[in-house]
Structure formats: C-alpha cells, structure tokens
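Lab notebook, bench 4. The sequencing result for the construct came back, and we need a structural model before the next group meeting so we can plan mutations. Quick request posted to the team channel:

Model the 3D structure of this chain.
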Amino acid sequence: MHTLEFAATTFDVAAATELAQVISGTTYIDERPNASKLPFQALVTGVTDNLEIFDNIADVGLYVICRRIIKPGVPNIVGLFPMLHHADKNHQQCDAHWRDVHAPLALEHHIHMTHYAQLSVVHKISGPDIDGFALCGFASTEDLRERFYTTPESVEIIQKDVLSFAHTKNSPRRLIATPKTYSSVDYFG
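Done. Here's the predicted structure in token form:
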C-alpha cells in the first residue's frame, strides 16, 4: 500500500507531537541527549488538506512523501535514515533502485526488522534536498545496534548496494527514533 503524505523535519518536538495529535499522524522522535547535533530531532508525517499547519513547524524541511510499506509491523524503535541520491543517478533512478532492488535485499539481510517503510520524497517544499527516509523498525535499541544485519556477509551486500544508489557521505546522519502514531481519539479524547 502506498499513500501520499506530508512530512516535516524539525527540532521542535512539542510542536511535532501536537501536530501529529491534531491530524492523527505519526512522530519519529530521537530522544537521545545529543539530539541537537542531528540534522533534525523529529519527523512528523500525516495526511491533511492544511499545508499551513505543517509549514508552521517545519523549521528544517517540509516534503510531500509517498509511504511505501515494505514490511508491515509495529516497531518499538526505528533507525531513521535520511537519504540523498548517488551523484551518478537522478532522483527517479535512485528511487526505483531503492524500491525495486534494495527493498527485497533489505528483507533478506535485515531479518530482525519488525517493520520497514520507505518514505520517498515526491516533492520538496522547503529545506535540504532529501530523496527519502528509510524507516527500519526493531523490537529494541539493542536489536537495532546488535542485530541489524542477518549475517556478517549481509553487511557487505547491503553496504555495496546502498553505495550504488545513495550518496552516503552527503546523506544526513541517521536518527534512532521512537515512533508514535496518534488517532483522533488521542486528541479529542
């Protein structure tokens, strides 16, 4: 299933949480003490016809995204990887490889993931150029850190593939985020 949504990147965790509650959206918040050194501290996503409420909190960036659920599930922790396309490819080529080649490899070589989604940037409204956000979900931070790859060979296979479509040196640093999805019941009680 694919859906078009808005995504805002921000350092304002409270505003991201409030927006997600209002629109029944999802937040991905990195709560580590050194989060101020990250490219952003929170990503909020959701569907709305009110672009202005997203624009009001997007102090880092605002994007229209296509959410592709590769492996459904409910993660406790997410490795959130912002991605820029490889210099030898354009956005469409990078995105097609990410979707059609990398996604099956990820499922094979990250068997401990409880959830995997690709947030492909369809349009940048403001902020840094980003081609997408990979959401790699795990049961725990320990699983994310210690069981990210299935085998030692998986490390080389995945890294080689990522290098073929993403510009890893220019891509922003990853976040380790706690996801929370809100429903109208959460906000309106």
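Strands lie at 2-10, 26-29, 42-46, 61-71, 77-83, 115-126, 132-138, 175-181.
Will bring this to the meeting.
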